[in-house]
Amino acid sequence: MTTPGGEDIPDVSDEEQLVRHLDPRYHWDPKEQRPNTGAFRSQEVSVDREQYRTAEIACTYRPGYGFARLAVLVPRQDLGLTVRKDPLVPNPPLLFEPEPSEQYNPGHAVILDATSKSHARQMRDASTVLYRPGEC
């Protein structure tokens, strides 16, 4: 199996689901048992496209993290934010599919300009927790 280069990865479609990695030190509210708004508030919110990398795969190299799912339409359509592909692939591409890692992620994407607390709160509230930190 060959691995595509970044230019071979299709753009993010409206039908996709995104997976947000939740660092327990910064993105998780232990009292509320849900992500905090900081998990979705940044110039570039880093996410995985679920069709390329599921939370189960991400759990293999980030077992202490939590993971939440968010539909692309929430930031894109509901909030008017840009969601674009941002694949993390070597150049030139590897010949064989590597093991999951933080360095190789053809399904990496970013939600741009999610800097308002209102946007962050709406994305947090629309997300579904797949794994709480440490549940993997």
Summarize the structure.
This protein is of the alpha+beta class and 136 residues long.
Q: How does the SSE layout of this entry go?
A:
Blueprint (H helix, E strand, L loop, with lengths): L16 E6 L5 E2 L4 E2 L6 E8 L5 H7 L4 E6 L1 H6 L3 E4 L22 E7 L2 H10 L1 E4 L5
Antiparallel strand pairs: 1-4, 1-5, 2-3, 4-7, 5-8, 6-7
Provide an overview of this structure.
The protein has 136 residues and is α+β, with helices and mostly antiparallel strands. The chain has one domain (6-131). Helices cover 17% and strands 29% of the residues. The chain has three helices and eight strands. It has helices at 55-61, 73-78, 117-126; strands at 17-22, 28-29, 34-35, 42-49, 66-71, 82-85, 108-114, 128-131. The strands form two sheets. The protein has a six-stranded antiparallel beta sheet, sandwiched between helices. It has a two-stranded antiparallel sheet with strand order 2-3. It starts with 16 loop residues before the first strand and ends in a 5-residue tail after the last strand. The mean pLDDT is 91.
